[in-house]
Amino acid sequence: MIELRGVVKTFKTKAGPIEALKDVNLKIEDGEIFGIIGLSGAGKSTLVRCVNLLERPDAGEILIDGEDLTGFGNKKLREIRRNIGMIFQSFNLLEQRNVFDNVKFPLEISGVKKAEAEKKVNDLIELVGLKGRERSYPSQLSGGQKQRVAIARALATDPKYLLCDEATSALDPTTTGSILELLKDINRKFGVTIVVITHEMRVVESICSRVAVLSDGEIAECGSVGEVFYNPESAIARELILPNLVKAINENPYEYKLRVTFNGAALKESIISLIAVRLGISVKVLYSDEKTVNGRTFGQILLAVPDGAAAEKIKALCEGENLTVKEV
Length: 328
Ligand SMILES: Nc1ncnc2c1ncn2[C@@H]1O[C@H](COP(=O)(O)OP(=O)(O)OP(=O)(O)O)[C@@H](O)[C@H]1O
Ligand SMILES: [Mg+2]
Known about the structure:
Elements: E1 2-13, E2 16-28, E3 33-37, H1 44-51, E4 59-64, E5 67-68, H2 74-81, E6 84-88, H3 99-109, H4 114-127, H5 143-155, E7 161-165, H6 173-190, E8 193-197, H7 201-207, E9 210-215, E10 218-224, H8 225-230, H9 235-241, H10 243-251, E11 256-263, H11 267-279, E12 284-293, E13 296-305, H12 308-320, E14 324-327
Parallel strand pairs: 3-8, 3-9, 6-7, 7-8
Antiparallel strand pairs: 1-2, 1-4, 4-5, 9-10, 11-13, 11-14, 12-13
The structure holds adenosine-5'-triphosphate (ATP) and magnesium ion (MG).
């Protein structure tokens, strides 16, 4: 398990201190794929770099399997970092080395015997789907292929954890999809715990089980992807996950607006006709969306209603149908 307790990180710059992490508390369980989202500058990269102590926090504890890394010296840290692989948006491959030698690099550093290292490299290259490209240099590969090399290299030391900082942000949607499938596969086959930092909501939707929303160096919200994506509580999570809903709320000057969230696609159509037939009230749909997360469909509609009395009646009707309804 990865656990962050009261993590604080302030950068001192000429223009003054920047509080990148204010008081971060987070638990990432073994075997899960955990997402971290947030606006640019929220502190995501700083957070993930604190997990393997590439960045040393000013206060707080970083516990990996119960051991606090902040007390460890460099030798012990190097040992622990072998257990924590990392991949980046920019791939960070060694340009002078071919695919095979890039993947072999961490094994050379840890002094693994040649025959054993070469077998391992071949297995990893096969795993990431690059068999036949062993002798290619990074400049001869596509972005997706480079990221496959980076993944193979990160897995060379059999890490228990894999940290991915915007690993698919430089890739087109199709290539992103194939890299996400590969990560999912690695999680399933080897039980590697994966932390995914991203600004792309669909990345979280497609592979993560839980997600934390980081805002200004603090965790604004954390929960299952189903919960957080279906019903974001914090303003920042709403802005990130449902930007069009926020826009619809702000741009429509109606006095009475109701946001009805539903769980299961069929309800959306029927609730509007129920309101019309049972209550004789006609509403205007200002916004509607639905998402399928882990096989369940969640969604919401934003309704403009004529007056306060109508709003009360609609609320009672929706509650009777077990729908969550809120005035916005
Ligand atoms: N080495 C550094 N020195 C000074 N300030 C830094 C340093 N690294 C990060 N920061 C600042 O800390 C804040 C958080 O940066 P961080 O890179 O963690 O954000 P991020 O959420 O990863 O953003 P992005 O989505 O753009 O990658 C920013 O204000 C950034 O300018
Ligand atoms: Mg970043």
